[in-house]
Amino acid sequence: MKRLTALAVVLLVCMTLDSVAQAEPMDALTLRQGDVRIVKLADDAKVSDLQGVIDTGGVPSAIPMFSKGGALYGIVAVDLYQQPGEYQMTVYEAATKRALSAKALIVKQGEFEKSISPSWNAHVFTKPELERIASEKQAMAEALRTSSSQPLWQDGTIYPIEKTDHTGLITTPFGQIRMNPAQDWFRFHRGTDFQAPKGFPIRAIATGKVAHLGHDYLLEGNITVIDHGLGIFSSYLHQSSFLVKIGDEVKKGDVIGRVGSTGNSNAPHLHLALKIGGAVVDPLQFIEALRGL
Ligand SMILES: [Zn+2]
């Protein structure tokens, strides 16, 4: 007990619940929609000692935690669609469920590029197409329901497309707002697009296990979903071919498929998407944050 009391001093920059009760200003973490941030939770603790939770008004979501060099870290993720506002993160002692520390999570509006494209996605889906999209979404949601209880990404991250003179360039960033003024319609870009020709190898951004393969989905085309543990999933869209099977264990950097233009795509490229505890987040922030640890 004594050791955990000492831990609370370190947790989330020294904010204990006692001091919150004294109405002192809470130290806060400010993030934008779609952001991913690594937060040090304790200098000397095991993953099994603590539980971190973000409460945004709905079902509180668990903060994925991992150990590195004896310290304990959490991955704080803000959904692209999270309403801006002030929320709370709390760290509990796992054994007793006693709250050890709390900190405000301030979510600001994302500052995303806007692209106006009168012709983009002017296609009106038929009823059978809409039904197909719904059942494909359902199949993906099913696959994301279970995740490994271990953090599998511990050996870091890598970019999915090797950088060369003609590959690896980001053609559409995460969050870009695509607008069609004629239809009074817009949509956020829910991933990051990488330039690459058809057939170029796609690499797993981190170690994990293949959770889902979608064959020729109407929007995603051929899609591979990899479970990295603790509710973290990466998805690779529009592939021309698959190189893994469901249940395969893949290492960071393994080639899992080939670039294509299947599904809702105009030219060969890779669309990489990342979900953390159900939150749609910027994949590049995840890759960069875990490369640096
Ligand atoms: Zn895309």
Number of strands: 22
- Beginning-to-end CA distance, first to last residue: 29 Å
Per CATH, the architecture of the largest domain is Distorted Sandwich
The biggest sheet, with number of strands, parallel, antiparallel or mixed sense and barrel status, is:
8 strands, antiparallel
- Portion in strands: 35-45%
Estimate the global geometry from the Cα principal axes: globular
SSE sequence, one letter per element: HHEEEEEEEEEHEEEEEEEEEEEEEH
Structural class: mainly beta
Q: Can you tell me the number of structural domains? A: 2
The whole-angstrom Rg is 20 Å
CATH class category of the largest domain: Mainly Beta
* CATH homology superfamily of the largest domain: Glucose Permease (Domain IIA)
- Spell out which ligands are present: zinc ion
Mean pLDDT: 87
CATH topology of the largest domain: Glucose Permease (Domain IIA)
Helix content: 10-25%
Model regions low in confidence, pLDDT < 50 over at least 5 residues: 1-25
Organism: Candidatus Methylomirabilis limnetica
GO molecular function, one term: metalloendopeptidase activity
Protein name: M23ase beta-sheet core domain-containing protein
InterPro entries: Cell_wall_metabolism_enzyme, Dup_hybrid_motif, M23ase_b-sheet_dom
Description:
GO terms for molecular function: metalloendopeptidase activity. Pfam families: Peptidase_M23. This is M23ase beta-sheet core domain-containing protein. InterPro entries: Cell_wall_metabolism_enzyme (IPR050570), Dup_hybrid_motif (IPR011055), M23ase_b-sheet_dom (IPR016047). Keywords: Signal. Strand 3 and strand 4 (about 60) form a beta hairpin. It is built from four helices and 22 strands. The chain is about 15% helix and about 40% strand. The protein is globular and about 55 Å long. Mean pLDDT is about 85; it is low at about 1-25. The protein has two domains: about 1-110, Immunoglobulins (Immunoglobulin-like), CATH 2.60.40; about 115-290, Distorted Sandwich (Glucose Permease (Domain IIA)), CATH 2.70.70. The strands form five sheets. Strands 10, 13, 15, 16, 17, 19, 21 and 22 form an eight-stranded antiparallel β-sheet that branches. A five-stranded mixed β-sheet has the order 1-8-7-3-4. The protein has helices spanning about 1-10, 15-20, 125-145, 285-290; strands at about 30, 35-40, 50-55, 60, 65-70, 70-75, 85-95, 100-110, 115, 170, 175-180, 185-190, 190-195, 200-205, 210-215, 220-225, 230-240, 240, 250, 255-260, 270-275, 280. The protein has about 290 residues and is mainly β. Zinc ion binds near residues 189 and 191.
